[in-house]
Amino acid sequence: MTADTDHGAAVVAAVARVADRIADERAHLTDLDSAIGDADHGANLDRGFRAAVERVEALDDPTPEEVVQTVGTALISEVGGAAGPLYGGGFMRAAGTLDDGITAESTVAFAETYLDSVRDRGDARVGQKTMVDALVPAVHTYKKSIEEDGLDPLTALAKAVDACRRGVAFTVPIRAEKGRASYLGWRSVGHPDPGATSTLCVAEELLAAAADSLDAEVPTDVDATAPTTPDEGES
Amino acid sequence: MVGLLVVSHSAKAAEGIREIAAEMGSEAAPIAAVGGDPDGGIGTDATAIADALAALDADEVVVLVDLGSAVMNAELAIEMSDKTVVIADAPVLEGAVEATVAATSPSATLDSVREAAERAGGTSKR
């Protein structure tokens, strides 16, 4: 097995982890969506990620790029609603950044491309109560942690997940300006955005999968708002 | 020939709008409808929209959409299509009617049909 297909197998395992988590969160996500949307986010994503797992597990020694591309097409064809093009389109566009495998650099490029795709497709900015509110802090924190603070990728990812969690909390008190929730006006205040919440679930599972494949512990006590010092011997 | 595609979250709504608009047109303006998520529930499905675009007997198509994700899924479908396709920024029912009338003109172009649909945005109900 080459390093590339080894990374491919790690990405397949990550997809399976994400799918399990989304299946566990199905009812929770649908509850969130019934408060401010059309109550199908959990069911739609669950259907999409189950199809994605089936399709990627059928691939023969895939590269990471092939796995992510396959996930994207599965989500587009199975999810429908807004989550299909946002998640599926994001993975499809970002897949190409992994053509040299999984590295600190390629994962930064992946995260940025994914964010750009979601922002373009949904035409959303921070502060409109969408998944962008969770994605922007997560992606910016990851990029800064790798490129400026010289953190190891796992710590950088843990920090990004913390930033993502803060982004979800940020969606609670604000009023929706995009999507079905925007028709509710002030009634959307007080509920977390379902898309931001599912984005956090995916990010948390990617972190757990990365720790698994590196045979390392998920870093704890990681605070996205604290100043960073690289570990001894890192960077 | 310029064709029309109505995309709604509901297959019934899409078909109903197609039916109303088709009364204004003739065989000169092919019009199709697609709606619902991959399970047949309320939603939109990029693959189904792409299939409907491919099946339409026209090389140029103006798409009429209802709510948010219909736009995103229509855009994805357009990326998958080899036809020249534009989305009209128009109310779906009134836009479909105006666009159908414009599409039956012998001098119809993609732009003239889209502009007709978009003019429907200012239509008063009284």
UniProtKB/TrEMBL annotation, chain A:
- Chain segments carrying region Disordered: 212-235
Q: Which residues cross the membrane?
A: none
Identify the residues that the record assigns to the DhaL domain, covering every copy: 9-208
Which residue stretches does the UniProt record annotate as biased composition, category Low complexity? Answer: 221-235
Can the keyword Kinase be found in this entry's annotation? yes
- Return the Gene3D superfamilies for the record: 1.25.40.340
Q: Identify the Pfam families for this entry.
A: Dak2
Enzyme Commission number:
2.7.1.121
- What PROSITE patterns is this protein classified in? DHAL (PS51480)
The protein in question is named Dihydroxyacetone kinase subunit DhaL
> Encoded by which gene?
dhaL
From TrEMBL, chain B:
Q: Which Pfam families would you find in this protein's record? A: EIIA-man
Which transformation does this protein catalyse, written as a reaction? dihydroxyacetone + phosphoenolpyruvate = dihydroxyacetone phosphate + pyruvate
> Which residue ranges does the record assign to the PTS EIIA type-4 domain?
1-126
Question: What Gene Ontology molecular function terms does this protein carry?
Answer: phosphoenolpyruvate-glycerone phosphotransferase activity
The enzyme's E.C. designation? 2.7.1.121
> Which keywords belong to this entry?
Kinase, Transferase
Asked if Transferase is a keyword of the record, the answer is yes
Q: Where is this region: Disordered?
A: 107-126
Job description of the protein: Component of the dihydroxyacetone kinase complex, which is responsible for the phosphoenolpyruvate (PEP)-dependent phosphorylation of dihydroxyacetone. DhaM serves as the phosphoryl donor. Is phosphorylated by phosphoenolpyruvate in an EI- and HPr-dependent reaction, and a phosphorelay system on histidine residues finally leads to phosphoryl transfer to DhaL and dihydroxyacetone.
Self-association or partners: how does it assemble? Homodimer. The dihydroxyacetone kinase complex is composed of a homodimer of DhaM, a homodimer of DhaK and the subunit DhaL.
Give the protein name, as stated in the record: phosphoenolpyruvate--glycerone phosphotransferase
Species source reads: Halobaculum marinum
